[in-house]
DNA sequence: TGTGAACTTGCGAATTATTCGCAATTAGTC
DNA sequence: GACTAATTGCGAATAATTCGCAAGTTCACA
């Protein structure tokens, strides 16, 4: 569970729902709002989906969680303190693989130098085909 | 307008709607289904949004158009023959800038070598902050 | 040139994901 | 303990996309 003071410190009230949402985000990783609600319901059955959405937004505003756009549209949330990494999204099987941000370092730097574009690596998704699906295609 | 045979060649029937959707995608670039429908309505007022969606899917299946995920969720369509480039999506102002795929070449190669992940550059979006918005933040 | 089967379209309804308004409840302050 | 503002639950409202189905079209072939 989230430590009380980390929420209070950021000017947020402490509610069981909010703590549970944050805890669920940390535990699940790359979870959709629906999945997060599901998780929270294990402890707090009555939580409303709106409450989950609102808390995710609030927690994101104070920098405790972040979202990224993986597959199709739906946002996916993860804890902000989690080590940033790249998301390799397979368009065929839908799996999301990880790679260290260092892999993209020179690419990110090139964008900054050439275009003044500051890439937000944590929001960054790479679409393609994973090795498993690539091999399956050949057979 | 799309040349008849390029649709027939791919086993598709030739309908005014289909031709117009393809033409609109080519003309607009990075357009949402809604925008494409809007464009088509200039010539064919009655076209239904479902028809636009279905044709985009069909045209994508035969490789004439492609979609990518830029900002928030909504898909954006462009012609397949268009020169592939990277999309630099600014999270602050929403603008979509372009950069040549070469910028990402070594990055893409690294992913292939290290993870067997074949990156689909045309589906690839880079989130961040554009130079204009970066400068605005400082003031 | 007809004809028929298969493909498409239009339309409205169904889904899905997300947001909003509002009254009731609750957390934090004094 | 009482007050104020933040938060929740709930149901309705949106927005984006998909689906079912009947009517209309396209194309292959006679």
Concise synopsis of the structure shown:
Chain A is an alpha+beta fold and 139 residues long.
Descriptive report:
The structure is a homodimer of 139-residue chains. Chain A is an alpha+beta fold and 139 residues long. The first copy, chain A, is 42% helix and 20% strand. Chain A is built from 6 helices and 6 strands; from the N terminus they run H-H-H-H-E-E-E-E-H-E-E-H. The first copy, chain A, has a 3-stranded mixed β-sheet with strand order 4-3-6. The first copy, chain A, has a two-stranded antiparallel sheet with strand order 1-2. In chain A, a hairpin with a 5-residue loop joins strand 1 and strand 2. In chain A, helix 2 crosses helix 3 (33-41), helix 2 crosses helix 4 and helix 3 (33-41) crosses helix 4. The longest helix of chain A has 13 residues, at 16-28. Chain A is flat and about 50 Å long. The N and C termini of chain A lie far apart (47 Å). The model of chain A has no long low-confidence stretch (mean pLDDT 88). Chains A and B meet through helix 5, strand 5 and strand 6 of A and helix 5, strand 5 and strand 6 of B. Chain A binds a DNA duplex (30 and 30 nucleotides) through residues 8, 12-15, 17-18, 32-34, 46-51, 53-55, 58, 73-74.
């Amino acid at each position: 569970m989230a430590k009380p003071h980390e929420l209070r410190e950021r000017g947020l009230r402490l509610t069981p729902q909010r703590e549970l949402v944050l805890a669920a985000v940390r535990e699940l990783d790359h979870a959709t709002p629906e999945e997060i609600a599901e998780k929270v319901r294990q402890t707090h059955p009555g939580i409303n989906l709106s409450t989950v959405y609102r808390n995710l937004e609030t927690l994101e505003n104070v920098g405790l969680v972040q979202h990224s756009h993986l597959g199709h549209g739906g946002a996916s949330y993860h804890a902000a303190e989690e080590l940033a990494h790249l998301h390799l999204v397979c368009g065929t099987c839908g799996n999301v693989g990880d790679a260290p941000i260092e892999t993209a370092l020179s690419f990110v730097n090139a964008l900054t130098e050439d275009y003044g574009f500051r890439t937000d690596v944590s929001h960054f998704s790479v679409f393609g085909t994973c090795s498993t699906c690539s091999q399956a295609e050949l057979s």
